[in-house]
User: Fold these one by one.
Assistant:
Number 1:
Amino acid sequence: MTFLAIDIGNTRLKWALYERGAPGAALLAQGVEFLEHIDRLAESDWASLAAPDRVLGCVVAGDAIKQRVREQLDIWDSPVSWVVPSPAEAGVINGYDFPTRLGADRWVAMIGARHRVQRTTPGRPMVLVMVGTAVTVDAIDGDGKFLGGLILPGHGIMLRALESGTAGLHVPTGEVRTFPTNTSDALTSGGTYAIAGACERMIQHVRAHCGVEPRCLMTGGAGWKMAPHMSAAFELVDSIIFDGLLVIAEEREAIRQRLAAS
Ligand SMILES: Nc1ncnc2c1ncn2[C@@H]1O[C@H](COP(=O)(O)OP(=O)(O)O)[C@@H](O)[C@H]1O
Ligand SMILES: CC(C)(COP(=O)(O)O)[C@@H](O)C(=O)NCCC(=O)O
Ligand SMILES: [K+]
């Protein structure tokens, strides 16, 4: 039962093919495509893959992009589903005012992260940071309840906003410095520490609310840029969204089999 997991963000599509749809399954192939190039997946990366038995995706890039990916998936007859955030799934309770309005990537990542935390430090609250096009900083308590989260601009959006709103900030990328002494370093450091500061605040909020030190996990395409500059110890786990899709796939298959047997 091979399983294709797909994560479509606002910048890139990430995919991973597993031997089966369950946590710990062997990874058979994976790839990344910028959204500009997704229309060639069927004739490039996916052309050499055998049809997966199941496909599960999460998408936050909008309906037009989703439709273009559906067309690429048409090379196979595989059943395709997309995750829609619900009030509760796979051990996570959705605290959003309107649960379906939560980003599907955040929901799936929280499920993946919760399972990782439960395996090793059960009952620990956590702070989950995703550094992609945007940055999200989400809090989950010890019972698996999503308390709420922050959304802020990612590095690229922050820089473009500053460039377009000013006359004097068109400069090359700089370095992260404690005391930046040129415009490039000031911009790069400002963005990095804005994100780091938001994470620190959320850690304080969770600590105060739960009375326990949270576990801190980080993922996303730009996570490696942020990780060295965090003051708390963050575990960088690239696969959190795929881990969440594997957990959801396994749960849904178990439910399907129970229904079929009854
Ligand atoms: N080698 C790289 N290729 C693409 N993006 C990168 C790379 N290194 C860092 N990034 C950063 O990662 C972000 C994309 O991360 P990703 O998690 O794929 O975002 P999204 O899920 O929003 O599509 C880009 O906005 C960019 O800032
Ligand atoms: C916050 C996001 C834009 C992050 O997207 P990304 O950076 O992964 O492309 C996405 O999760 C989203 O569109 N969320 C819907 C709104 C919400 O979560 O409240
Ligand atoms: K994402």
Number 2:
Amino acid sequence: MNSYLESNSAFRQGENRDMITKPVFIVYGVSGSGKTTIGSALAKKMGVPFYDADDFHPESNIQKMAKGFPLNDTDRAPWLQDLANNISKWSSDQGAVLACSALKVSYRNILASVVPEAIKWIFLKGSYELIFERMQSRKDHFFTSEMLQSQFDALEVWKDGISVDIDQEIQRIVEEIESKLKMQKSEIGVIGLGVMGKSLATNILSKGFRLSVFNRHLAGKEEDIAKNFVSEHSNIPQGFDDLSLFVASLAQPRTILMMVNAGPAVDVVIEQLLPLLDENDCVIDGGNSHYKDTLTREAKLRKKGILYVGAGISGGEEGALYGPSIMPGGSKKGYENCGPFLEAIAAKDEKGNPCCSYISPDGAGHFVKMVHNGIEYAEMQLLAEIYHFLRFHLGNTPDAIHEIFTSWRSNSKDSYLLEITADILQKKEGEDFLIDKILDKAGQKGTGGWSTQAALTYGIPVSTISEAVMTRCLSAKKEERIEASKVYARSFSTVKTDPSIVEMLEQAYYAASLVNHAIGFDLMKQAAKENKWELNFSEIARIWTRGCIIRSDLMENLTLFFEDSNNTPLLMLSEVVETLDKSIDALTTVVSRGIGMKCPLPVLSAAANYLLNYTSETMSANMLQAQRDYFGAHTYQRVDKEEGVYFHTDWKNI
Ligand SMILES: NC(=O)C1=CN([C@@H]2O[C@H](COP(=O)(O)OP(=O)(O)OC[C@H]3O[C@@H](n4cnc5c(N)ncnc54)[C@H](OP(=O)(O)O)[C@@H]3O)[C@@H](O)[C@H]2O)C=CC1
Ligand SMILES: O=C(CO)[C@H](O)[C@H](O)COP(=O)(O)O
């Protein structure tokens, strides 16, 4: 099996950190067109450093030019490559303005070879006569005006970027550049600059897309949010608190990413948007909307010719900034419109492919995201209860548990959630561990509960997920628990940890995690069947290998497991059977020892019970059937008769 730690030293997206780029404006044109003067004035206005490409020439080039010899392309190549590397450095810092002649397309290609997405081209346009006249008056430059004609001959037209006429005052030229940069229609717009929207917008900008952002204006509460975002980003994006101006700033067909709170806010925004949109515009809901709401909204907007994509986005604030996992569903045609943007900002998997893939129509993207969160709930609870057991029943300090979890990480069981749990155990406030100061009342926004509700609708047992949800609900009854703990005062038993129980816990944790993932994939499988979605589980596991909250070593393996067996239940795959066969004893032993010591282990025991029942030819359900038939004449089937034939017994007549 893969080890995430081995293959990737930075579990938390660190590998993508250097990909956040700031724009580098390249002011280009023939010698004498004013690149240095205009470039430095522009840099001053934008508050970013200015660089002159001439200052980066190697000594050999300077000597050659000083002797009056023009440079050839062989002379220029290392200089341009060095500039390209510097552009990358500047763009990962605060951005810059660079003055560079860059006359030929091939030169511009070298300049853009390292971070093409960071570069904005600004061409200074002027006639030969005007520039010749200006060159005549320059005394202190190693470039002679006689070389100008060769510059014009070399100049190649370029479709990218903007051009400005240099036959005007410097200040006017700078203003024109700024206004032209803004006048270019944005390729994508983001609505809602909250935690996720702000990070996603920054991510979009860093990929070189022209962006507009919108945040509502609430007097006295939410003011100038979009304007502030713009000023934090060198005035590159366009910011609005007027929705119609925001929509008008977008190139058609428009692409709009909504990052507002799931629920009524999404409908409010859609209603406001609808009169402003045209056919084939694409609206993406990137929040955690309920999949049935997405289904309804997609159908409604389809009738109006609007392409609606319900995209689950996972990764939290940091993932959104550096590369989230994205699960788009809904309009396939819409995905053709917005896919390039979503794939560009998504995390990249081990092979560099985007962790973003069209899931299926309707609300399939949000369904898959909901199940992701269901799995997340159970994985979190598993780690929480194992921590609790180790700390309060096996007598370990947070530091010792940190060490234990860290050793599991390097043992092919690494995951983002294991990593952050180990981290949390090191956080101190003065002498105290912060974890001890956090109230044990869990919050939830709904997606775990929705998974449980969907499981009930589709008749799929999701014991680990539902138990995790119920445990959060029970935790919220803090005041009642305090009272109950007094009434039922019980003594906890504590034993000293021995290595064998830690080893068993590790196995039990992995077994329960496997069961939990099997449950999540089962739920998706049934939903796919009932909704006629074509879900590719290997692909879903793949886009969950980076960027999302449940990324793990196990997920890497699931990508491979499902590759040839999309429809085989996970618990029946030979690799999984082999692992669980070896760890089932550890799981049941840990659960019985823990419960015996009065340590609640809701998800570990749910996983153990699930596994025991799942692997039993005979379950206790025959008694249920008899009871049902006894009191309600619900009938039953017999083991000694064909399935589908139902019997009723007069039970009272014993
Ligand atoms: N936070 C996270 O880690 C993750 C969140 N999500 C999902 O992403 C979505 C956004 O979450 P998050 O960014 O955390 O939320 P925030 O509360 O930080 O931001 C919500 C945004 O929605 C805007 N908004 C709310 N109501 C309206 C409305 N009626 N009209 C216009 N705009 C409105 C808010 O504007 P204003 O500033 O004016 O209030 C704000 O910009 C949610 O669905 C969430 O579940 C998904 C993955 C991870
Ligand atoms: O979507 C997410 C990650 O993928 C969020 O982190 C999730 O919404 C957190 O959910 P809750 O507040 O219910 O714990």
